[in-house]
Specification:
This protein has 38 helices and two strands. The chain is mainly alpha-helical. Helix 4 (71-77) packs antiparallel against helix 5 and helix 20 packs parallel to helix 26.
Length: 679
Amino acid sequence: MASAHGAAASPALSPAASTAMAAIMDSSKPLDTAAFDAMCDAMESPGSPAGTTAREVLEAFRQHPDAWRRVDGILDRCRSDLARVVAAGVLEDAIMLRWETLGRPEQESVRNFISGKIIKLSSDPAEAKREEVFLTKLDVLLVGVLKQDWPHRWPSFIDEMNSSSRAMGEGVCANNMRILRLLSEEVFDLGSGVVADLTSDRRQKLQASLSSELKKIFNLIAFVAASSTSVGTLTETLRALQKYLSWVPASLVLETDLVATLTAKFLPAPAFRTITLDCLTEVVGAEGSEDARWAPRIMEMFGGVMATMARVIPPGADIPGTVRSAKARGSQAEPILVHRLTLFLSGIFRRHLRCLEGSEALRPMVLQGLAYLLGAIRVDDKDLCKLVAEFWRDFSRDLFDTAAAAVSRAGGPSAALAAFTAATGGADAAKGASADAALHGAMAAHPRVMNYSRLLSELRLVGTELMPKPEEVLVEKDASGDVVRSFTRDTDALALYDVMREMMVYLTHLDPADTDGIIVAKLSRQVDGSEWSWERLNALCWAAGSVSGTMSEEHEKRFLITVIRDLLHLVTLRPGKNNKAVVASNIMYVVGQYPRFLSSHWKFLKTVVYKLFEFMHERHEGVQDMACDTFLKLAQRCSSCFVALQPRESRTFVEELVSNVDTIIADLEPHQVQAFFEA
């Protein structure tokens, strides 16, 4: 890429640097690559005179507008890694900043040099492996040129990729797949900004151009998938395919045999299993994939995936244990596979569950797929847990909406409530509605709900064991194992709590007796000590509080009295400051979630309030804060009970409170006293 005219003037340099710079930019002579390497080597001694001069020269070279003309000599003959980094940076600047100032011959010179270098390196497998980082950088630079020139100045690019992939061997083919993947990422993933930013208009034109070439690209991918035997080439091909599947219309994929190839050829092979699941996940989520004409393809895909995965992860396998064991021995293969399978299953069930349920042959596989997701939610991975919890919330809401709407259409019990909650589809609407026992029974008898009854019961159990901490709870276990006041707000845990709370609301509406039975049974095991632990008790009580308003009034009364009775019993059974703080925080959280019950049962409310006053004397800041906050919440939600004269009482509770206020607040801090008086 030598210039036919003189170099532009360099910035002011020291005499030594000026001489060196003039030699580098002298286009009448070949570049002295040994001297350039020596200059880069001198950068290892930045404090020396030679290092200072080298830094000055290299910085000036990077900024020189004609430096790109000397890059070919550096990349072809220099041995220094730094020299190649500098040269690649100069090319990047030429493409990103100066491209439109170059003449057409100069642009083609840069393009041809990069293309030729890529083909030379990728043709030799040993060289390509040794120069993998450098080759990837060249690929990125070529994509930068494409973003500037394709298709108007390089219309034959896709055809050239086709021909070279078929004629030049596995290495070139694999690298071409990488270039196609990078191009899709830059054009449809809003780009990485590495080489050249795109205007909105330019991006739209590139997207249209790439879309118009999809047939050729997919034919090339199909050719490589069918003919290649190289693991590396096939992996790059599947990675490229996954990027294109993320934006192509479903019809382009589902009208071909591509899905069958993925499920039959690539999914059973361990080397390709995770990337194949990525591809299939994109297919089931593609726009238009819900069209009824593609139902046979979707069902065939699901059947193939489940048949293969049953051999890899047998039904009934301990998925959390498998992931835990793999991480303990330093393996990431199993955790990654579980994550990819979770993405696929949640994706296909979200969009195509009704279609899959319609096939009697696939119903056992649907149940097995849902069982995998039940296992996945228990994996110790916050991101995975949130992903699966969101699926289960939506799954539960879909069953609730279906059952409630069916009851409404049939004119069954509480049809108006069913129609309202089905129309809103909101957990708060469902939670706030006046629950009706007959409605619950009718919804539980719906065929879809009955089909999943066992699975839904297991899901309720998951909710009682994994419920995250809600915002109202102000105590936590610290690193030393003590229960202390929590001062930080865990936004991730709160977001997960909201998701799982909604899930439990829908599940309890579908069968409140099952939720009641699970919570009461597990709480009795806390009392008898067989499952006693702070973590288990916390999750159980947070779940109990989350289902407020989902049971009929009479059912809620029995349920809450049982829960509070057992928790009060635990206060006496588990002495010690930390134990009492944990149990007290749970009592306060649960009672704060049931204002409807407390408003209707004055004696119980009064007992609860006096228990709060007792907790206000605990020498634990978190317990005292929660006691004051809970009292404030009850005062806001049950205010009429406190100011009205209750049966068999000689004065209102407010009067009684005023007469004892000094004793009640004796151990409170100023901010807690403020909350008390606000109440």
